[in-house]
Amino acid sequence: MPQETCDVCSAPAAHKCSACKQAAYCSKEHQKQDWKKHKDVCRPFEIRSSPELGKYLVASRDLSPGDVIVSEAPLVVGPKLHSEQAMCLGCHVPTRYDSDYRCPKCLWPCCGPSCPADPKLHAAECSILRLQTRRNLEAAAGKDVGIYHYDAVTPLRCLLLQRRNPRKWQQILEMESHVKKRGPGTEVFREIRDRVVTFLQENYLQKLSGAGKEGDAVLEDCSENTLHKICGVLDVNGLDIRLALGAEVVALYPTVYLMEHDCVPNTRHSFEIALGDKQYRVTVRATRQIRKGEHISTMYTHALWGTQARRDHLMSTKYFNCRCKRCSDPTELGTYLSAMRCLGAEILSDGSADADGASCGGTQLPVSPLDDNTDWRCDRCPVVLSASQVNELVSRIGEEVDSVQASSPTVTQLEELLSKLGMFLHPHHYHLYSVKHSLVQLYGHQQGYQASQLSEQQLERKAEMCRDLLAVTDKVDPGSSRLALYSSVLLHELHSAEFHLARRKFERDPPSISAEEMTRKAQGAKSLLLTAIKVLEPEPDFSSGSRMMGLVRKALVDLESWARDKKLTLS
After folding, report:
1. Are 96 and 327 in contact (CB under 8 A)?
2. Whole-angstrom Cα distance, residue 469 to residue 433?
3. Given Cys at both, which of 47, 150, 452, 571 links 79, Cβ 3.0 to 4.6 Å?
4. Which residues on adjacent β-strands are paired with residue 24?
5. Largest Cα–Cα distance in the chain?
6. For the chain, what is the radius of gyration of the CA atoms?
């Protein structure tokens, strides 16, 4: 293989650009020296545009799984719109409206006495928020939640960029807002007007020192139209970030917002959520081979929702109809995540319906999945359901599933729900997926169902459910773009079920499997854990994924320790 040479001096090169892997350098000094020239060709994508998609990204070279496509800091970050979650405006840790700690100047709740002191996070907005009459804030003492509209904070932070960072402000204004689809008469217009526009203008912006009605002397533009546009930009382009203690914030990024949606995306993004200079930084990686010229995509909705639910969400929040490969397929790539069981009677050889009412065993699927009003037809009998009938049934089932899941259900309750819903839904339906995913975690962990208490039949059932759910997950999320946590949980639980089952047989007197067979079983369980670790590697510290990584690593240590004690050799 030819020796790499430095792009600056042609000397033997020991370093490569970590982003594009194309440029080589003999030293860090020459890499820094070349950056002004190299940065324009470094990024592995091009920005293109079309009337249908607007701006979008395509790969400018072949990309492999794990390659970093873009890593960047946010333009702005703050509390989500349409949320009343109280949080510290300094660090976004969840707090209470009646918190004992408050910013001494604006009196908004915070997590402790030191947080509001950071000028990068709170000082600029604090000078505005303190314009609310101190008497009102002191009288409220956190009891009048109407004093605090957290969903107005991030739009205010955007407005402040006019003076603090005009370049970022201009980047935000260039983003799509769909204000015409969010105009007067729409529910979102009324909500934004009441909770953001009126709240900010009446309590703060009109009181800016030396300002007219709109506060133009302090901020060049804080008009009602601009505030509606900002909120549209946040709704359409913002990325939600779940923080370590459960709070959620929204962030706008200068490049990532250009990525188009696909229900089977080819990238994965992760956020830096630990405190520090890199907090909220997003990194986007390829999850499969992406060829030069191929569109680079992400996903704006939940991968485990059915087609109708995904398309409804995308239309109501992002204002477009998805027509991707998955949405266009009645079977959703062979997963049947939206499919219903047919309740029609079996048709006998003479053409009559079975008098005993036996089901035909068929599956109801949408005839034209891109048509919201399409009929649903059975693949084995003449029964046809209307879209409204299916939507009503699925909606009622969803409410029941949500209610049961929210009540800390037992194994028995979930098994009963699974049996009941199995009469109406395909075994792979997304509502049943949700129930099964919860169930496999209770088997082996809930009181009375610890691993040592499960029968062999229960362990086999748990393993079968895990394998079934993994097969569905891999089809709708190849490369773990969106469901890394779901996949890792299933891999961990499958390892647990299969290992405990084999271990129980091996430790019998006499054993029912040989040492060779036990070694093979233990190696298979180890492979599952190693796959889970690989899936979780991009997850940031302090996230749910990193906590899951800790469980998986502990399980791997325990497995290898047991194998050594039994003198079994694992590769």
Report:
1. no
2. 7
3. 150
4. 16
5. 90
6. 28
Q: Distances in Å between the alpha carbon of 275 and those of 113, 151, 243, 324?
A: 17, 22, 10, 38
pLDDT in tens, 250-296: 999 999 999 999 999 999 999 998 888 888 999 999 999 999 999 99
Which of 271, 278, 300, 298 lies closest to 287, judged by CA?
A: 298
Helix, strand or coil, per DSSP, at residue 429? coil
Please give the helix or strand (H or E) that residue 200 lies within, else none: helix 198-203
Evaluate whether 328 touches 373 at the Cβ level (below 8 Å).
no
The residue whose two tokens read 């299969």 is 498
Q: Of the ranges 47-56, 131-140, 208-217, 523-532, which is most confident?
A: 523-532
Q: How confident is the model over 29-70, as pLDDT tens digits?
A: 999 888 888 876 778 999 999 988 899 999 999 999 999 999
How far are the Cα atoms of 98, 140, 200 from residue 147, in angstroms, in the given order? 12, 8, 11
Tokens of 327: 């949405």
417, exposed or middle or buried, with CB in 10 Å at 0-12, 13-18, 19+? buried
Cα distance between residue 348 and residue 355, in whole Å: 9
Assign residue 72 a region (left: φ > 0; alpha: ψ between -120 and 50; beta: otherwise). beta
Nearest alpha carbon to residue 317 among 140, 200, 188: 188
547-551 long-range CB contacts below 8 Å, 24 or more apart? 548/485, 548/488, 548/489, 548/492, 549/488, 551/492
Tens of pLDDT, residue by residue over 415-429, are 999 999 999 999 999
pTM of the model: 0.87
